[in-house]
Amino acid sequence: MIWNPNKECMPREQMRLLQGKRLHKIVEYVYHNVPFYRNKLQEMDISPEDIQTIDDIVKLPFTTKKDLRDNYPFGLQAAPQSEIIRIHASSGTTGNPTIVGYTRKDISIWSECMARSLTSYGVTSDDIFSVSYGYGLFTGGLGAHNGVEMIGASVVPASTGNTEKHARLIRDLGITGIACTPSYALYLAETMDRMGISKDEIKLRVGAFGAEPWTENMRTEIQDRLGLKGFNLYGLSEIMGPSVSYECDEQHGSHINEDHFFPEVIDPVTLEPVPAGQTGELVFTTLTKEGMPVIRYRTRDLCSLLPGECPCGRTNVRMSAIQGRTDDMLIIRGINVFPSQVESVVLTMKEFAPVYMLIVDRVNNLDTLVVQVELRPDVFNATLDTPAAIDELEKRFADKLRSVLSINAKVQIKAPGTIERSQGKSSHVIDKRKLY
Ligand code: DLL
Hints:
CATH topology of the largest domain: Rossmann fold
Number of helices: 12
Shape: globular
Largest sheet: 9 strands, mixed
Number of domains: 2
Oligomer: single chain
Bound molecules: 5'-O-[hydroxy(phenylacetyl)phosphoryl]adenosine
């Protein structure tokens, strides 16, 4: 089944005409409503009239996460506050999160994009569907929720945490579909094993997995252990949230909702488009968004656009799985974490030298984060001479980290000179998960 064949299976020439028209409109819209874009366009001597077809997009400036941060909180918002009906936030590199406001029309388009994804996975109004992405500032929970409601399946807003209760609900209600991070799916399988709930007692048949990178091996393991078919779901807050793209039954790349989000792949160094099919940095322009439209947003995600037609009948272009990032952002338990956030905490504590290391691992299918930090030599020699003093400092550091990162980290305070220095480019991360 296809939710909106008119848009998902549109002939290519027609799609490009539609994209061109929408691009012109959105450029005109930001020109008149967002001083940041007006200034940028004026600096480049571009007027909205110069943008008539989708090919003109290359004339436009890029937008980066730094631009969002510099314009915190509402500087890139185009619609008046009275028209914003929801605000989400995602982590920034330091300090301020990225704030994204949505109008009623934005939420309705987002819900439809999500409905397209779920329909492509085979979800129908007969399903009982558990949304186990976090609800709250993160876009995963409410984003998926609205889509499930739109197709008329029964949504169970399980969110994350309380996994044993969730496992019992999956068995007792006969839940047939689930949306969560792939690592949470494995953790759920593990919890069920521990509780003695077998695959034969549950009716799960479809999973919508995303918000973090995952491998084909993980897909096989999740499918085997939960007895379902797992589909990729991709998205990012700055563009919308989950369902910027979604897999179909062919599971060869994820179809982009191209009538709303125009994709480009560029060389992250030269910023020039890469030849079709080659890997580079994914860039999106929102073609219809009212709340916070973005022009040529650099996602930092590395992938390629797949050439050729898809046997499923959808004509929307497909993107490959994400193959890495051009920055150092980590996704730990579905939450975006930048080493620079840890650094910002380290720098606020006078006991520490600016030498730290994040060690990320996956233990029993749960991501773990250890943050090591070095004491300054004078502090090491003078003040911190009892285990109680070290404990107190560790606790203070862990509390500060939790409030900045929104996840728990185990902290280890190290003696001066004991964290390994890198020879070349300074690296603050050891990621043992091998996700790409
Ligand atoms: O993770 C939105 C989302 C929620 C997508 C639920 C899918 C499901 P952010 O928190 O802004 O938004 O993080 C976006 O997560 O740039 C990618 O690096 C990564 N990411 C998201 N989906 C996938 C995926 C949500 N399917 C960042 N595969 C993106 C690999 C993914 N990476």
